[in-house]
Write a structure and sequence with these properties.
Structural class of chain B: mainly alpha
Strand order of the largest sheet of chain A: 4-7-6-5
Order of helices and strands of chain B: HHHHHHHHHH
Oligomer: heterodimer
Radius of gyration of chain B: 18 Å
Shape of chain A: elongated
Distance between the termini of chain A: 36 Å
Number of strands of chain A: 7
Number of helices of chain B: 10
Distance between the termini of chain B: 37 Å
Number of strands of chain B: 0
CATH superfamily of chain B: Ferritin, core subunit, four-helix bundle
CATH superfamily of the largest domain in chain A: Fe-S cluster assembly (FSCA)
CATH class of chain B: Mainly Alpha
Structural class of chain A: alpha/beta
Largest sheet of chain A: 4 strands, mixed
CATH architecture of the largest domain in chain A: 2-Layer Sandwich
CATH architecture of chain B: Up-down Bundle
Amino acid sequence: MVNNTIATNAIWKILETVKDPEVPVLSVVDLGVIRAVSLEAKQVTVTITPTYTGCPAMDMISMHIKMALNAAGYQTTIQTILSPAWTTDWITENGKQQLKAYGIAPPVGKSFDQAYLEDIIVPCPQCNSTHTVLVSQFGSTACKALYKCETCKEPFDYFKCH
Amino acid sequence: MATMKNEIDFLLHLADNALIIGHRNSEWCGHGPILEQDIAITNIALDYIGQARNFYQHAAALINQNPTGIDITQTGNDMVLPATEDSLAYLRDVREFKNLLITEIPNGDWAHTTLRLFLLSAFELELFMQLLQHTDAQVAAIAEKSIKEVSYHVKWSQDWVLRLGDGTEESKQRMQAAIEAIWPYTGELFIQPDYATAACLDYAAIQAAWNKKVLAVFEEAGLHIPSKTFVQKGGADGMHTEHLGYILAEMQYLQRAYPNSEW
C-alpha cells in the first residue's frame, strides 16, 4: 500500500504537467477535474469530470492525460463521472493565482452561494480596480464571462462561478 | 422491461429536446445582434449539445444492456445494435424524434429566440430538480450537471425578456408578438408523456412553479399572456411540425449520404 501511494503520487506529479488547452497556465489538477487516480501494476485509471457538458476541451484533456502517462510507461484508462458535478470551488488556490497572473479574473465567491447569478464585483486582473462591468455572461469559452474594467479600460475574461 | 423501455424513451425525449434546441440556437452563430450576444447564444447551444450527448450516451448504454428486451425498430427504423450517441442522433427519422414542439419552431427574431429559451429553460430547471431524485443514479448525475448550466440560461434569457419587454415601444411590441406566437407551444411542456413514469416526476408541480416564475417576469417587463389560446401538442409522441424534417435533413445529411464517415 505504501508503495502504491508513492507510485500514485508520481502519477499526480505527471498530471500536474498536463495543462488545460484553453487556459495553458492551469494544470488539470489545479482545475479540479481529476477526481481519482488508481494504479494496478502499470495500469492506471484516471477518473475525470467535465467542467461543462459541452466543453470541447474535455476530449483533448483526456488525450493529453493519456499521452503524458503513456510517455511515462503507464497503460491508461480514462473514466468520466458526472456526479458530484464539477464546481469552480475545486480550482486550487495555486490555480486561482495562475489564472489572475494570466489575465483571467478567478471565480469570486463560492458556487453553492446562488448569489453568483446576481451582480457581483469582479476585480480587474490587470489593475485590481473594482470598478468593472459585466459585458456578457458568456465569454470566449463555456467557462468564462466577459467583463470590462472602467479604470484601465481593458476588457478581460472572468472564470465564472459554477 | 416496460419500465426500461419507458426510461429509454424518456431519455430520448430529453436528449432530442436538447439536440434540437441546441441546433436552433446554433443557427445564430455569426448572425447575433452584437458579437457578445452571438457568443452567448452559441455558448448556450454548446451546453445543449453537451446535455444531448449525456442523455444519448446513457440511452445507448441502456439499449445495449437490454438488447433482447428492447425492440430496436421502435427506437428507429434505421437503427442497428450496438446503439451509439451518434446513431441515436443521426439515424432516427422525424416520427421517431420525441422533442417538444417548442424546441423545433424557427428562431424568428431575437425576441422570439430569447423568449423561447426563457420559457423552455425555466421548465427544464424545475424538471431537472425533480430528476435529482431519479432512481437511476446516472440520470440524477446528468440532471445535477445540467442544472448548473440551465441556471445561467434562465438568467440570461430572462434578462432579455425584461430588457426588450421593458425597453422601447418597438422592442416591447416585438416581445409581445413573440409571446403571442410561442405561447400555444407552452401547454405541451406540462403534458406528461406516457413513458415519463419515473416516480420522482410531478408535472403539476413543475407547471405551478413555472407559472409563478414566468408571470412574475412578464409582470416586471409589462408583458401579458394571450387572453385566448390553444395547445399545440404531439412532439413528445413523434407528431411534429413541418419544421423538424428540415432540421434533420440538414443535420443528418452527412451520415445518411456517407454512412459511418468520420472527421
